[in-house]
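Attaching the record inline, Q. Sequence:
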Amino acid sequence: MRRVLAVAAVLCVLAAVSMLLPPWECAGQVVVVWQAHDPVGDDDGPGTYVYPTNPAFAPFSGIFDLAEFRIVHDPDNVYFEIGMATIANTWNAPDGFSHQLINVYIDTTPNAGRVDTMRDGAFVLFDPGHAWDVNVRIMGWGGTRVYMASDDPASPGMSDGVSAEALPDGKTIRATVSKKVVGEPSDVWKYYVTVASQDGYGPDNHRPVMAQGGAWVFGGGSDLDVNPNVIDILAPESGPRSQHNQLGSWSESQRRLAVLYPANADARLVPGIGHAAAAVAGLLVLAVLGFIMVRAARGRPGGSGD
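Structure, as predicted:
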């Protein structure tokens, strides 16, 4: 009986390992590296921003409201999936979305990178402890690009192996980036995700947030190019690193820009679980179960190795 139970335990472990292996090794699917949900209804920057008044921005909420972020990969590509409260393709952009300008800044390498946005436009800075190394800029009209922290501000970015599209669910924008461009994802990568409004005439394609709103500009900011031109970020709902606190850390009188922090450096977000962590946790649980089964068999009256 003991032998039967031991064999059963081994088979369970092997089955679990096969399920926890990277899916492409099993069925050609993708692996989730990390994901998190963002509070819904906070597309108001530091809490004061209001939408432009032109009917193109109707229903005047949700279009810039980040709801979820997910990063997955397969053998060839990394996929950045940004869930929004809604997506409006008002001007029929070929990528399926017209309004959103989404930046994913990734800290891939400790003690490297930069803490500014390379070009003025978003008017934010980044935590010096997690300077970004890779910037995936997601835009409609074929404008999606990848930039490196070492790039010159005049760099056009990398477009080969880079694309973006709105998915059929009407709420998700997916950027596809070749691993030849961005590298192999790691569980230690840190992510900043910012959502702004794309404006071909705005600074670095960001629609400005002014003191007073108007038909084509947001209101609730400043006229001095110091407040963030960012409407939503991936951040906890409350606490010192909430969205309102981060985006509200700018100062007009001191001409100080807001400082942002990586989303997965704060445990208060509602996260998914990384593949490696899932594998380790699953194997530990199965090992404990197998040990209990074997001990139970040994302690059973009349038990034998046959």
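Residues 1-28+276-306 form one domain. Residues 4-27, 272-294, 300-306 have pLDDT under 50 and may be disordered.

More tomorrow.
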